[in-house]
Design goal:
The chain is of the alpha/beta class. The strands form five sheets. A nine-stranded mixed beta sheet has the order 13-12-14-15-23-22-21-18-19, sandwiched between helices. Helix 1 packs across helix 9 (249-255), helix 4 packs across helix 5 and helix 14 (362-375) packs across helix 15. The longest helix has 17 residues, at 115-131. The chain is globular, with a radius of gyration of 25 Å. The two termini are 39 Å apart.
């Protein structure tokens, strides 16, 4: 069977949830027995989101093969429980870079390089690359931005061409749009959607399905009106009501029969009705917790929830097996000091110190860690959070005055965190960190070994600096132990304080691997410790 392709576009406004709709549709198709993957095409000119400010773009998600990608890929993995790769996220910057490199090599035989056909051909190549692997029966491609944006025009044109080249039965377009509610008029308005579809039509594409984001239910008459003016069948107008949680959306789309409409349009067999039993069990347990636990998330980007999206979702996942609701309290690290830390963190049952780069907010993170260490509060440090707990221990337990990371102070007398050897000669900032999945061996009898339940793990990384092994003997003699190391390089991956009720810092990013059906054991154990204030149970 030839691969089928679904393109998801958006109109009227951004942030309607194309990623969640794409992931929800993919989940339903997966439940019917189809092999599905999702790709994101981003119209910005950055080669990848690795150098983008989290305030601008939210978190940068990292794949096993070391790609720095859009945060939507996190949603794809969390919903499908299947890893993504470099091929699942493509930006305009990468497209242009590839085309220019080809031109420099003479691949175009001296022809004038243009948007059409060269840029559009490269976009189409990126889409078919996933389809040609022979793994996926259906490839869903989400196009970032909104229809009508200058940046999106080459992608829309590529979709138009793609549809004719691959055949009507093999390619379809889903358009996500907004049905706003005007309080003054007391009614939903369909006109913005009509205009959005007309914009898409003016660029040569007739959508096959409309997914309408709305605050209130659409009446039968309203659906008929939208269908009439947008050249669609009535059943191709799909209502997407605001949901309590993103994890409700697959069930809402199933109720709207989105997967059935899509399969019929692509002339694919319906196969088994999606049961979503495990998904429903997750939602039932999520919505009916037996208790609540308060976790402080200490970071410098807490004003924007998307900056720590994967951590937020990993805590949601971890709450379910613990039968609790995780109340994540954002604490801005720049606002923490020795005078207010006790008050700010007074009601917290656990403290997570978030990843990040740079000096800003570092002191507040260190103060929060000192508070957790001295008061026996469960602590979990991730990437820079792990490095901060090393700095805090060096200063306040080992009494190494001025101990710091070489990232923050190149002239520190005690560089307990130093730049990685292979990073010393690098000048380009984008895509050059230690990225992707690496092995880690766990120490027998350690908290980490108890949590994971196996001697070796693989976790994803995104960092330039590492623990300085020159100080390891001194640290371990005073009670902070390295319990996870890379077997090839000796890089310290995990630090623990065994005498503390729960104190663990990891150099990697476990949040990237947490999914609805497989909550990450580190987050599960941390939430368990926060609830019980005792050592966690072993992983199943």
């Amino acid at each position: 069977m030839s691969t089928k392709y679904i393109f998801v576009t958006g109109g009227v406004t951004s942030s309607l949830g194309k990623g969640i709709i794409s992931a929800s549709l993919a989940k339903l198709l997966q439940e019917r027995g189809y092999s599905v993957t999702i790709q994101k095409l981003d119209p910005y000119i950055n080669v990848d989101p690795g150098t983008l400010n989290p305030y601008e773009h939210g978190e940068c998600f990292v794949t096993d093969d070391g790609a720095e990608t859009d945060l939507d890929l996190g949603h794809y993995e969390r919903f499908l429980n299947v890893p993504t790769s470099q091929a699942n996220n493509v930006t305009t910057g990468r497209i242009y870079q590839t085309v220019i490199d080809k031109e420099r090599k003479g691949d175009y035989l001296g022809k004038t390089v243009q948007i059409i056909p060269h840029i559009t051909d490269e976009i189409k190549n990126c889409v078919t690359k996933l389809g040609n692997k022979g793994i996926f029966e259906i490839v869903i491609t989400e196009i970032g931005g909104t229809v009508g944006d200058i940046e999106s025009l080459p992608y829309i044109e590529a979709v138009r061409q793609f549809r004719y080249e691959h055949g009507y039965d093999n390619v379809m377009v889903i358009h996500l749009t907004l049905i706003p509610y005007l309080a003054a008029a007391g009614e939903l308005k369909t006109k913005p959607t009509q205009h959005s579809v007309k914009t898409l039509q003016s660029q040569g594409i007739q959508p096959d399905v409309l997914v309408c984001r709305t605050e209130y239910p659409l009446s039968v008459d309203q659906k008929k009106k939208i269908a009439l003016f947008c050249n669609l069948h009535d059943d191709a107008v799909i209502e997407s009501m605001d949901a309590d949680t993103i994890y409700d959306v697959p069930l809402l789309m199933k109720k709207e029969r989105l997967d059935k409409v899509v399969l019929e349009r692509l002339k694919l067999p319906l196969r088994d009705e999606p049961s979503l039993d495990r998904w429903k069990n997750f939602l039932t347990n999520f919505k009916n917790p037996k208790r609540t636990v308060k976790i402080a998330l200490v970071g410098k980007y807490v004003e924007l929830q998307d900056a720590y999206k994967s951590i937020q979702e990993a805590l949601v996942h971890a709450g379910v097996p613990n039968e609790c609701s995780v109340n994540v309290v954002s604490v801005h690290s720049e606002e923490l000091n020795n005078e207010n830390v006790a008050g700010e963190l007074r009601e917290m049952q656990g403290i997570i110190v978030a990843p990040g780069f740079g000096q800003r907010g570092l002191d507040g993170k260190i103060i929060a860690i000192k508070h957790a260490r001295e008061n026996g509060i469960p602590f979990f440090g991730i990437c820079l959070g792990m490095q901060c707990c090393v700095i805090e221990f060096a200063r306040n337990v080992l009494h190494l005055e001025g101990a710091n990371s070489a990232e923050m102070n190149a002239n520190t007398p005690f560089p307990v965190i130093d730049i990685m050897e292979e990073q010393k000669t690098i000048s380009n900032m984008g895509g050059t960190m230690r990225l992707g999945a690496y092995k880690c061996e766990l120490k027998e009898g350690s908290l980490a070994k108890l949590i994971y339940g196996r001697p070796e793990i693989s976790e994803r990384h995104r960092h330039r600096y590492e623990y300085n092994n020159k100080y390891l003997e001194q640290f371990e003699a005073s009670g902070m132990i390295a319990t996870g190391k890379n077997p090839e390089t000796g890089l310290v991956e995990i630090m623990e304080i065994p005498s503390h009720p729960y104190f663990i810092g990891v150099q990697f990013h476990p949040e990237y691997k947490s999914t609805v059906l497989n909550p990450h054991p580190l987050f599960v154990s941390f939430v368990n410790a926060a609830i019980n204030e005792k050592q966690p149970v072993a992983a199943e």
